[in-house]
Amino acid sequence: MTIERSNPPALHATPGYHHVTKIRADELIMFAGQCPLQPSGELAKGGLSGQTEQVIQNILLALEAAGARPEDVVRTVIYVASPDRAQLSAVWTQLNESPLAPAFTSASTLLGVAQLGFPGQLVEIDVTAAL
Known about the structure:
four-stranded mixed beta sheet; alpha+beta; 2 helices; CATH 3.30.1330.40; two-stranded antiparallel sheet; single chain
C-alpha cells in the first residue's frame, strides 16, 4: 500500500493537512462517524474538549480493531456543532496534539454544523483508512 500526500504549488498553504491524498491499496476501510460516546453509551463529559478526547479514543480503538493505524488514514471529516471558529480551531489543535495526529495529514475537512445526532453532542469525526 502506498499513500502519497501532496499540496499543489498553485493552491494555498494548509495548517497541516494535504490537499491531495493519492492511495494505492488492497483494502479501503470506511468507519462510521465516531461520536463522543463512552462504552456505557453515555455522552462524554468535559464539554467540547472532553468530547473530542472521547472521539479520539474511539477512533484509535476502531482503527486497531480493523488492523489500521493513524498513519493509514486517508480522509477525515470533522464535524463540530458550533458556529464559533475559535471552537473549530480548538478541536483542530487538540486533534493534532493527540496520538491520532498522523490521521490529519491526509485530506481533511473541518465543518461547523447546526447539530449532531445525539442530544448534547458537540463533535463527530468520519474516517477512511487504507491498507
